Input
Amino acid sequence: MYDPAIGRWMEEDPEGFAAGDSNLYRYVNNRPTVKTDPSGLREADDRLTARTNSLVDVSQILENYVNRVIQQSWREAQDARQNAGGFARRVYDQLGADQPGSEVSTPIGKKSPIAKIGVWLDTNLNVAQNQIVKLTFAQSRYRDNKLQGVWAALGIPWLYNQATADHGIAPTIKIKNTLMGTDKWEHFFQQGYWGFDAGLSRQDAHAYGLWLEGDRSARGHFFEAHPDIQRRMANQTPWVRHDFVDQYYQKISAKFGVTSWYGIYGNYSTGIVSHADINANIAGQAFYEKLFNAYQLGQTSYPFSFSVNDYPIQRFNEQNVPNTFSPNLIVNDNEGGMGLPPPARLPVELGGAPP
Output
């Protein structure tokens, strides 16, 4: 039984610590009415269907826009005599930061703003020219889930009403001949910068992505990435170890005004752990590292340019790297599959889902 007045279940979570909270009596870290995705990173339906089969590749459009942003940010950073860190932050502010006014209205206020690159893609790519497909919730693979009204506060907030459900489905585009949601570029330019700014190793970035998505293996991966911390905490209780990891990762997003907790971008907001999102996070971190390393104050030209060919684009597709779904979420792939076989599973790499 749940008591909404205190944000607490009256009995222990039957999944124990595996549910993702060090307090077994607590639900979503005592945030049952604000359990939403604060930065607007949406879910994708990137299947090959009758709707997406005619999409044209927009890699060049994306590259041209990103490179214009890079060059403008470089000129401004040079004029302001900023170092490489200031330059990288300028690029983030134009691509990865949240777009004001992009939120969706809910009974507890406007929530889930969309990162600026997502808004740019949504508004500048042309539906009539088959550059982008904008699905409604009712057209997506998640359409069989019922909209839950106020009960969404205790289930999947994404499904509160039609507006929140539609807001949570990212449009589909084709990059490097690979279908993906525009949300992957939100992850790339936003979470990628967070990992870069925190100086995460690739292994730690993978663990951080799993933590944000709400994958149960996240904390174990954290300790694998930090064997010194693992040794120091070997005799601590699971409660203490989980709380340590949570505080460690919460500080990363807090710097950018985002209050995060385990599963906020996946399992505890939409019921979906997207391993393709994590791949986009890690690739985005590599982008910012390249951007940073190529910059010097006093340059007469900037030698680095963004190219989709430098990143594992195939691993941004959720059919190549399948999601982990909550048992409470209905996924219906029977519609519009065109009778085509699913894409071949890619080999497991860092950031990919296990077979």
Remarks:
- Residues 59-79 form the longest helix (21 residues).
- Residues 1-40, 336-355 have pLDDT under 50 and may be disordered.
